[in-house]
Amino acid sequence: MRTRSPRAGWRALDVGDLRGAISDFDQAGQIREDVGLGTEDARPVIAGIVGFAVIAHAEAGAFERAEALLADAGLDGELPEQMVFNPLLHARASAHLLARRVDKAVADFRELGRRHARWGLRRPSPPWRSSLAVALVARGERAEARELARAELELARVWATARSIARAERALALAANDPDETIAGLTSAEQRLADGPWRLDRARVRCELGAALRRVGERRAARELLARALDEAHACGAEVLATQATEELRASGARPRRRALSGHDALTPSERRVAELAGRGRTNREIAQELFVTMATVETHLSRTYRKLGVPGRAELAAALAERDGEPEPAT
């Protein structure tokens, strides 16, 4: 089995491979032993690792796990005013937004903006302006959202990367009052992301563009985009987005294809995470402690995994998972 590291997790998250990112962060998350989690000196070191792990789990719909990671690292409250905590603050706010805790998301995004202003930072990374804009749209505060998105779009054009521009275009489109502006902005963002490696960003924009087209009666075009978004969301392991795309497809009159009922693609991120730990020899109790879940949850995930993979029990898990990953079965 390949050696995993935070760097591998960051790369996987960047291209929308949430299953890979979660697996990498969990294995690299010998964080406690490696850097002495719990000591004040270690907090800046683990902030980046925890932040990216939090957003991966939140995108996968594992909100309790994301919260537990923050709490266990002592990063769920007020954070020191150091630049190293900026990505964590953005990730924490993004996780709140995915969980529909909009007020908490707005508070964290605003705090990140205050810190950027204090330090005179003029860059679209982390993209706090567009992220705050999307959160404000959820509260119906579109005027401020448009101002923030326009400001980030100007910065992104100087930054000159397709992804940063697309994120700002997406936020500005969602904040628009005119449906035609929304569709035009999301179309531009989708085209910028079309040939890049950012699968999750692309799937999200396609889902939102499909929803916008549905609302103006363009049902056929909407269904095509939404179906592609749903497929990409499933491929990424993005359960929150997959649910959104499924709901939009049903609203368009379509009947979304059922997810795979067996095989590796049928595993949820939580099931795969439990299975990988079990395949590496961890006991149910050890898995429950590491993932901050109950023993009953572990047992449920394992029983479902055995059925989906068609294996009789724990001893066959490592080989079954390695078969999908293209890795040799570990020697015993």
TrEMBL record:
CDD domains from the UniProt entry: LuxR_C_like
SUPFAM superfamilies: C-terminal effector domain of the bipartite response regulators, TPR-like
Residue stretches making up the HTH luxR-type domain: 260-325
Pfam families assigned to the protein according to its UniProt record, in alphabetical order: GerE (PF00196)
UniProtKB keywords: DNA-binding, Transcription, Transcription regulation
InterPro entries: Sig_transdc_resp-reg_C-effctor, TPR-like_helical_dom_sf, Tscrpt_reg_LuxR_C, WH-like_DNA-bd_sf
Top-rank taxon, per record: Bacteria
Gene3D superfamilies named in the record: Tetratricopeptide repeat domain, Winged helix-like DNA-binding domain superfamily/Winged helix DNA-binding domain
Annotated PANTHER family: DNA-BINDING TRANSCRIPTIONAL ACTIVATOR DEVR_DOSR
The protein's name in its UniProt record: LuxR C-terminal-related transcriptional regulator
The organism of origin for this protein: Solirubrobacter deserti
